[in-house]
Design brief:
The structure is a homodimer.
Chain A (H helix, E strand, L loop, with lengths): L9 E6 L12 H11 L9 E5 H7 L3 E3 L7 H10 L3 H9 L1 E8 L2 E6 L4 E3 L17 E3 L5 H16 L4 E8 L8 E8 L5 E2 L15 E2 L1 H13 L8 E5 L24
Parallel strand pairs in A: 2-8
Antiparallel strand pairs in A: 1-12, 2-12, 3-7, 4-5, 5-6, 8-9, 10-11
Chain lengths: 262, 262
């Protein structure tokens, strides 16, 4: 048997402890740095910080009181079809470019950010407004790639460390059951890693070319974040050895005309 | 600001070093234990071992010499449509229950194991037969859930440690670009983690219920395995705190009649 000489690369994922409930206007970079400090961790070049979209969205003030929403006639009509609150449907429509599927209790749309998701990623859970009694929902960040870049810049300015940032969400998907973490915002790393032209062990050209790197990072972080009741919205990933790149989550959106998998 | 008291859970992923080129009949459990030993690692209860399907398939003798394959008329016809070797198309058809899409260079099928994939997961790379000169391809394991269970049993018998096993492959997917690691065989852990009924931070019932846990594990392992030229087909994942369960990768296959995402 021939052995391949190789080191034993390893990755460490650490869920940052004690991230507080985030409020509109909060400084997410400061919250992360504070949590890192309390965990005795300092950022290093090459680290990647995965952040759940919820805390970014909350800090950006993306909560909406349903009482403030006036549904259009189309929203009322769809709401009747699926049996959901017309005000929620109205927000879903505003966040979408296309309605893909309707079933009782379910509305699948193409989000304005390009991906396909249930309810346009709008979440009713974990939102608390002043007073706490009103029904509110949380929209995704307006431009998660820009949010990721701003966070990366703030972390660099504060620590001198060039880190990657991935803003994650949990999505259902076609063909497979179960939600998985996906990247909706990326900065400082490749989102899609082009391995075209690299040779495999026997010198063949690799057939599978692009790796959905930022989605693999989001899924890995999801293993720790997945425990909603435990409030773990940020994960530090150390040990990735990535080529320098300025990826964006929008790189991961498959153009419909190239989508043979559907 | 209210802080949530919580520990800082962490995960460690270690790519096992120096896995040799695997040959038909090789004992994968023995290869893994040997690599673990050389890395100074001993399995513990609750560890999960992610293994790339390639080494399982090779050990199970799933290489096929194209010279040994006689294509049917239907395979010849499809081969002409997509511009691929008719013998390869013949194998793809034998491994599939349905052809979903055809385009020059691409054939997307529903694999007999239930998932949708390009080329039925058949891979031309990294296969070497005795002599080394013949064109060969590698099929997926015949029953990857059974392969995972056998591996789990062998590791338990050898070490006394109750570990989970995930057999992984890289799949393209609808809507999103880039391949990601997915679970095609599972033993000893839940594949789909039912979080229904659990309350979130504010006491709401979680809206997203089932987590595609084994797929998140496969994607995380993919971050280390993804480097084909480096020969890293096995990853030890330590630190997951999973409920006991006997999941199977087939749990992750979404029944077409419930698939609103397509």
């Amino acid at each position: 048997m021939s052995y391949i000489a190789s080191p034993a690369p390893s990755l460490t994922l650490t869920a940052l402890p004690s991230i507080p409930h985030v409020r509109p206007g909060d400084d997410v970079a400061a919250l992360l740095l504070d949590a890192l400090g309390r965990a005795g961790l300092a950022l290093r070049d090459g680290d990647v910080v995965a952040v759940a979209q919820k805390i970014v969205s909350k800090a950006e003030g993306r909560q909406v009181r349903l009482a403030d929403v006036t549904p259009t006639a189309r929203a009322e009509e769809l709401a009747a079809q699926v049996g959901k609150d017309a005000r929620l449907i109205e927000l879903i429509l505003r966040e979408s470019t296309e309605v893909s599927r309707l079933r009782p209790g379910v509305i699948i749309v193409r989000h304005r950010l390009g991906f396909t998701s249930a309810n346009a990623g709008i979440d009713r859970s974990n939102v608390q407004l002043a007073g706490g009694e009103e029904e509110a929902v949380l929209l995704l960040p307006r431009d998660p790639d820009a949010s990721a870049a701003a966070l990366r810049d703030a972390l660099l300015a504060a620590t001198g460390a060039a880190v990657g940032v991935v803003i994650t969400d949990s999505h259902g998907r076609p063909f497979r059951l179960g939600t998985v973490g996906v990247a909706i915002g990326v900065a400082g790393i490749p989102a899609l890693w082009d391995r075209r032209g690299e040779a495999d062990l026997y010198g063949y050209r690799l057939q599978h070319t692009d790796v959905g790197l930022a989605d693999e990072i989001a899924a890995a972080a999801g293993l720790l974040m997945g425990q909603a009741a435990e409030g773990l919205p940020a994960v530090l990933i150390r040990g990735l050895r990535l080529p320098p790149a300025e990826g964006r989550a929008t790189d991961l959106v498959r153009p419909p005309e190239l989508d043979l998998y559907r």
